[in-house]
Design a protein that fits this description.
The protein has 250 residues and is α+β, with helices and mostly antiparallel strands. Helix content is 30%, strand content 29%. The protein is globular, with a radius of gyration of 17 Å.
Length: 250
Amino acid sequence: MLDISAYLTRIKYSGGTDPSAGALRALHRAHLFTVPFENLDISLGRPIVVDETATRHKIVNLRRGGFCYELNSAFAALLRALNFQVTLLSARVARANGGEGPEFDHLTLRVDLDEPWLVDVGFGDSFLEPLLLKPGIEQIDPAGTFRLAAYSDRFRMERADDTGTWKPQYSFSLQSRRLEEFAGMCHYHQTSPDSSFTRQRICSLATPEGRITLSDMRLILTRQRRREEKELESEGKRISTLWNEFGIHL
């Protein structure tokens, strides 16, 4: 059974929890500012499973982060415990070659209030507040400008770059999914040499000013759209950075 108080303490949240748009925005931001997007267990040979109990223990008790299957399934469980109506959605992540990944490549969420919202605390560098699930409108977010484009029976979530060009991040349908349906792709992403998650250790956290990311031995700080990089000199320094900057002890 989910311990709501412990979860809210983990994300340093003390605001309202009524199923409203305001509370949803605040909870979303709080989660992104405290629970990092990270894949550190993969390089350590620790299996990641799509299991709500295991994921909540990892995030709340072990004070770790995770990738989409973990972060969004845990956040969905918290929202449901707070009486939000949540649906798991399968998304296909945009590729650099213009294509998309397969179904279940990414887990995202729909939350229904007076209007439906796209909710996602597990994609890394993306929107900080939920997006209205309404196509054709530009939505200004603290992290940038986003929009949803509708085509066929799918939506494509896009972000405007610094030149104003719209870049796709992922596409999704509104078909309700079960958590166990993501198990195959979760296994793929932690075992396949073709997965980006097996080729790079990543730990990234949104901040009010931007983002802090540890990518293998590179520490990347983004503040007010200005990017600074620093190469760490040793594995010991990487481990201490995980603790000092992200509160992660492996």
